[in-house]
Task: structure prediction
Amino acid sequence: MLGALWAERSIADSWLADQPFYFPGLGIVSVLAITYLVGLSITTLVGKLIWQFFDRLLDRLPALGMLYRTLKQILGYGEGADGLFERVVLIPSRDHEGVELGLVTRTLPAADGKEARVVVFVPAAPTPTTGRVVLLPEARTERVSMTVHEALRFLVAAGKLEEGEGARMGIA
Result:
């Protein structure tokens, strides 16, 4: 709201107010139109290409690139071999009466005929930057068909999902 009022005042005080097509409220309409066009451009193919270009550019910056990659991984946008988290799993809860959502950070190969183990970060809700790390046999984990980003969003929302969204993510 303050941004729209600021935009309205700024446009009214600028050279645009002297133009014949100016009307009160043009600042608010301009802010809404610009917001819509930015969103539209990012969601289209051209916008995605532009976003990928800037993503690679930020990724290659000497000092800020590392910070940018880390932030992307923490927010759940980097997953798989390149990311901080490989995949989302369900693990038995501490009391073994339920399951907990976990993010696999690393798979340890089997040694001496033993079963492979996974390192699972179990984030706390609604603050997924805190939690605990658990080392489990891979057989005790259950894959979930959700992305790391969706899992973090689920945790921040304290499990509140839209109708049918839990089934789509494989947790309902």
